[in-house]
Design brief:
Distance between the termini: 83 Å
Number of domains: 1
Strand order of the largest sheet: 1-2
Structural class: mainly alpha
Order of helices and strands: HHHHHEEH
Number of helices: 6
Helix content: 40-55%
Length: 173
């Protein structure tokens, strides 16, 4: 059986070209989350923090601010922040006030995308105290007041300011 080769006519203009996009990465969010090279991502964040520290130690405040902005917009910093809040944090299984718990790789990737691609500045929800049962006790309750998304939003700025804090601690010592 012979295959018949058909030729696709060459587009005459740019507008005649078909809009087919080929992406060479995984298509679903779960695969994207699992295929992240965490050593490289954490090394990128560590390197950027070191640059902030060095600029702060040198007294170059303009460079410090520029690097901090770069850190806040960094994809690696967002991924590390989401990972710390959803995987390594002791309260990762406890829903925030917003009722959100992120456990699956798809949800983690969606949360990272939501934080990274947000065009308007983050506006925190007002803190509302909710009392949840304490672990191991049916009668005792503890207060909870921070939403999960807010924890993920605050984490990158916390990471950004750490580089300068260590420099200030060294300066005062």
């Amino acid at each position: 059986m012979k295959r018949k080769m058909t030729e696709i006519p060459e587009p005459k203009d740019k507008l005649d070209a078909t809009a087919t996009v080929a992406v060479s990465g995984p298509e679903d969010d779960a695969e994207r989350w699992r295929q992240i090279d965490w050593r490289r991502v954490e090394a990128d964040v560590r390197r950027l923090r070191q640059r902030i520290f060095t600029a702060s130690k040198a007294g170059d405040l303009q460079r410090v601010r520029r690097l901090q902005k770069l850190m806040l917009r960094s994809r690696a910093n967002t991924l590390v922040s989401v990972r710390r809040v959803t995987e390594r944090n002791a309260g990762r299984l406890t829903a925030g006030v917003d009722g959100e718990v992120v456990l699956t790789p798809e949800a983690k990737m969606r949360l990272a995308d939501r934080i990274q691609q947000n065009t308007e500045p983050f506006k925190a929800m007002p803190v509302r105290r909710v009392y949840i049962p304490k672990r191991g006790s049916s009668t005792k309750r503890r207060p909870l007041g921070i939403p999960l998304a807010s924890r993920c939003w605050r984490r990158p700025s916390r990471t950004t300011s750490r580089g300068c804090g260590r420099c200030a601690a060294d300066w005062w010592a």
